[in-house]
Design a protein that fits this description.
Elements lengths: L8 H5 L16 E7 L2 E2 L3 E3 L11 H4 L3 E3 L2 E5 L5 E4 L1 H14 L7 H14 L12 E10 L12 E10 L10 E5 L17 H16 L4 E5 L7 E4 L3 E6 L2 E5 L8 H12 L3 E5 L11 E6 L3 E10 L4 E4 L8 H15 L9 E4 L1
Parallel strand pairs: 9-10, 9-16, 13-14
Antiparallel strand pairs: 1-2, 1-3, 1-8, 4-7, 5-6, 5-7, 6-18, 7-8, 10-11, 12-13, 12-15, 15-16, 16-17
């Protein structure tokens, strides 16, 4: 196979890492593993950005598609760090179980991620640039099929791209909206799995919110419309006094970032409450944020319930609160190697 370099050295030098947006930049290689005849094959290295799949593939017709999101960071010491790689592998397995796809073994997942990061090492942004290498593993049904039943052939692909902040505001509070005419997922549906359909169903609501000047939608539960659910493409949390409070339901994706923040919250002396959270509790929060791999934490300025004509103002001065700031800085410090990783969250690429 003939490989190519997607950006020459001169063009690489011209990249302003500090001004990167959260978008796609072509890199050198991706890696792939195919599942056929009941087993996973060997890892393949490719420089082709395209996937050659059958027009009757189950990912196209019946939504057999799951993905993950993670990041690689370059520390002050020059070492490459990947954050919570095995937890991402486990969550992909859970998603595959949820939509009847073959599960990739955790060790194969880890090896594939390490391989693709090493192959694209020159695209990892430098320390203190505010950017990172985003890693996107996907697992799709590729077998040709017309009947509605689980596929028998799958492909695991990992692509990477250097990225900047997910939200253009960065670590600054922004407004969110409650739009009751939209549901993200159905109760007992696929909300707890990281599958593309969940994101497709939220696109219209998200575009509506942005057209009104909001960063994203704070969804309510689809059944009763009174409990907080997901916050756009991320988990939601609130700080009240000495408590870190985050919604819990079968419709919410278990966020690895949120799980990490809960661990750090306990470390700094907060009580963690993971439970159903009523909308009315928004009025009691000192701070709030959306959290996930892409943004880490995006502080919430206010939440407007447009149907009830209510506004919950959380950031009174337009700045992120002290607890959110402390948690954000601690997590970022661990990711970049500026603070000791006492939890075994970091995987090194040598």
């Amino acid at each position: 196979m003939k490989y190519y370099r997607s950006l020459n050295t001169d063009k690489m030098k011209s990249i302003d890492w500090s001004k990167l947006g959260f978008g796609y930049i072509r890199t050198d290689y991706n890696v792939r593993i195919n599942y056929r005849d009941g087993s996973w094959g060997e890892l393949e290295i490719s420089s082709d950005e395209n996937l050659n799949i059958h027009m009757a593939a189950t990912c196209l017709h019946y939504g057999q598609e799951a993905f993950e999101g993670m990041k690689a960071f370059k520390g002050k010491d020059g070492r490459i760090r990947i954050f919570r790689i095995e937890e991402n592998a486990k969550r992909l397995q859970s998603s595959c179980e949820g939509i009847c796809m073959a599960k990739l073994p955790i060790d194969r997942y880890v090896d594939a991620i390490k391989k693709v990061v090493k192959l694209n090492e020159r695209f990892i942004p430098p320390y203190e640039s505010g950017a990172s290498l985003y890693i996107r593993p996907i697992l799709i049904g590729t077998g040709a099929q017309i009947g509605v039943h689980p596929g028998t052939e799958f492909m695991f692909v990992v692509m990477v791209s250097p990225v900047g902040p997910y939200f253009k505001e960065g670590f600054k509070p922004s407004p969110y909206a409650i739009l009751r005419q939209y549901d993200r997922v159905a109760p007992l549906g696929t909300g707890r799995f990281k599958v593309g359909g969940n994101y497709a169903s939220a696109l219209l609501a998200g575009e509506h919110a942005k057209s009104l000047g909001y960063s994203a939608v704070l969804f309510l539960d689809a059944k009763e419309k009174k409990y907080l659910d997901e916050c756009g493409p991320a988990n939601f949390f609130g700080i009240r006094g000495n408590s870190y409070i985050t919604p819990k339901s079968d419709s919410i994706l278990p966020s690895i970032t949120n799980n990490s923040l809960m661990t750090l919250a306990r470390e700094i002396g907060l009580t963690v409450e993971e439970r159903p959270v009523l909308e009315d509790e928004l009025a009691t929060f000192d701070e709030a944020g959306a959290c996930g791999t892409a943004a880490v934490i995006s502080p919430v300025e206010r939440v407007d319930d447009l149907d009830l004509n209510k506004s919950y103002v959380i950031s009174k001065n337009g700045e992120a609160g002290p607890v959110s700031t402390k948690l954000y800085n601690k997590l970022r410090a661990i990711q970049y190697g500026d603070e000791a990783d006492k939890y075994g969250w970091i995987t090194f690429i040598d």
